Amino acid sequence: MNYNKIKKIFLNFFKHKKHKILKSLSIINNNKEYSNLMFVNSGVNKFIDYFLNIKKSKYLKIANIQKCIRITGKNNDLKSIGYDNFHHTMFEMLGNWSFGKYSQKTAILLAWELITKKYKISKNDIYITIFKGDKKNNLKFDYNSYNICKKLVNKNNILFFGYKYNFWKIENFKLCGPCTEFHVDIRNNNDKINKLGKYLINKKNNNNVIELWNIVNIKYIIDNNNNIIKNNNPLSNNYIDTGMGLERLCMILQNKKSTYEIDIFIPIIKKIEKILSIKYKNNKKFDIIIKIISDHIRTIFFILLEGIIPNNKKEGYIVRKLIRRSLIYTYKYININSPFLYKILPILFKIFKIKKNKNIINILYNEEKNYFLILKKNIYLVYKIINNKILNFKLNFIDYKLLLYFYETYGLYYFIIKKIAIKLNINIIKKKLIINNNIEII
């Protein structure tokens, strides 16, 4: 089942269930009153006013497929990119919402019907996690969800987690509530027999039992002191927020082990292979590079489409960071020192059926070109600075403070300084650098 068909089934399903279908809204967060987020990081961001009763929605039931970016804030997936099989800086979220119209029970049953009847995912491969309560916050076990879910799956496929995993706080928006999550076991039959999938849920480095759909019963509001208000609450049990990653759903339905192997990523990866003369799934180092570039170029593409220009402020800084991160990995590992990302853009226009925009291609080309010129100039400047310190101050090592200075002032990563140090025959003391969150060591 291809990407376009999966989207069509979702939208048609909720249209048939009398939901208003909306297009993906802007990925830029314009609702600064409640959040300092630069980008929309979940489908619900655009509907906060409706949940807080500040505005009344024309429609009490809505569904859409929202493009989301998770690079800043609590939900920052940047460091996972390239190193696991299913995180992305930008992803598409399938979601449906009720603004007082239907209950948690209806939301769970709708999700169950869609994934088992329409997408035909085997119920034996589905595990459901439920909120077990939290004494500290005086929150009770989610009996409603349990009573619904025990009729859908074997009781052995239901697990109970606390505040960390099954209580959802919508970042900076003061809304929260217990959530019910659907997880899918994508392993082969032998692996499923040898170890039950329930033992892999919410485990670190687990790529085999994937969280797919999060169904949140938005019942409570958080006050300014981070306390959960449960009394005199304007919300009812009929406020629902759900989210399901489209890329993960494609991975499951296309029988892949990675979201980078689904049909919309394959053309991007083939283009990268051709441009860089490297092969995917041939070399671990090259795999990391290809996954980073294929992820970042897609995010760069959609940010540029919003009219954001690479610069050193807010959204412009983020797109610049993604461009430079892509370039620095290829510079380090395969010695590419000329623009190439802009050559990938035409395939993205084709995949997402968007009219080709030469201006966007030129913006990316110029940003790449300028970065390599700056990089060359700064390497020369830093070389001179270190060499002068050796001659004038008898420097025989570079400490973490100097490394941080070179990174923040000249944008030079550790591996570049290391090359200069080797050339000048001096040591690097990097003990504190490793724990310094301001530097990304690659």
What are the SSEs and their pairings?
Layout: H1 3-16, E1 20-22, H2 48-51, E2 61-69, E3 90-99, H3 104-118, E4 126-131, H4 143-149, E5 158-161, H5 163-166, E6 167-170, E7 175-185, H6 189-194, E8 209-217, E9 220-222, E10 228-229, E11 239-245, H7 246-253, H8 266-276, H9 284-305, H10 314-334, H11 345-351, H12 358-393, E12 397-398, H13 400-410, H14 414-424, E13 427-428, H15 431-434
Parallel strand pairs: 1-2, 4-5, 12-13
Antiparallel strand pairs: 2-3, 3-11, 4-7, 6-7, 7-8, 7-9, 8-11, 9-10
Helix pairs in contact: 3-4, 8-9, 9-10, 10-12, 12-14
Provide a quick synopsis of the model.
The chain has 442 residues and is α+β, with helices and mostly antiparallel strands. It has helices at residues 3-16, 48-51, 104-118, 143-149, 163-166, 189-194, 246-253, 266-276, 284-305, 314-334, 345-351, 358-393, 400-410, 414-424, 431-434, and strands at residues 20-22, 61-69, 90-99, 126-131, 158-161, 167-170, 175-185, 209-217, 220-222, 228-229, 239-245, 397-398, 427-428.
